Amino acid sequence: MGVVEDGWENRWREFHKGVATGRFWIGPPWESASDELLAIVIDPGQAFGTGSHPTTRLCLELLDGVERGSLLDVGCGSGVLSIAAVKIGFGPASAFDFAQASVDAAIENAERNGVELHAWLGDALLDELPAADVAVANVTLPTVEAVLPRLTVDRIITSGYLVTEQPVAPGYRHEGRRELEGWAADLFVKATH
Ligand SMILES: C[S@@+](CC[C@H](N)C(=O)[O-])C[C@H]1O[C@@H](n2cnc3c(N)ncnc32)[C@H](O)[C@@H]1O
């Protein structure tokens, strides 16, 4: 049997570093936030969403540019997107994920940031989804395309796919796109005619 180094359980922490993105600083509780930026403190635990992934950053950029209103976070992971959204004026915010570890992390992170968030266990492809003004779905292209017709929203920000891809979104108008490091995010608005 090999010798296990001291502190191996926390070694992953070295890879979870704070990141400045737009007007946000997103980082772990054990790092100090930048004074000039809006701090979002995230301990992802077992969930996806340290805030550093290009798709998360692109969603935040698009979110900051849309009219405020109620929010639905589809596949919330650590809750990073809804927590940041509430901090810039969205609400009420509802977030769900089909992984219990993500729901737990989102609840803990919302408390850590003093943000009101309703986080629940649900499957985007099976469960009834609450109506919202704005939805954000940083999942995968097939999941984005499957959830779009199931949503009752005015605007939706989608990501989780490459710059070579774009969701087919019947009933929505494509309003904008951001790209970073080979990843893409899109803004769709419900077509009214
Ligand atoms: C790429 S992570 C995004 C996490 C976070 N929203 C972010 O932007 O950093 C995708 C998340 O969607 C969740 N997910 C994937 N498919 C889902 C589905 N059908 N229903 C609910 N959650 C789903 C995964 O468990 C994962 O937490």
UniProtKB/TrEMBL annotation:
CDD domains membership: AdoMet_MTases
Xref: SUPFAM superfamilies: S-adenosyl-L-methionine-dependent methyltransferases (SSF53335)
One BP term from GO: methylation
Keywords: Methyltransferase, Transferase
GO molecular function: protein methyltransferase activity
Keyword Transferase tagged: yes
Methyltransferase among keywords: yes
Protein's UniProt name: Unannotated protein
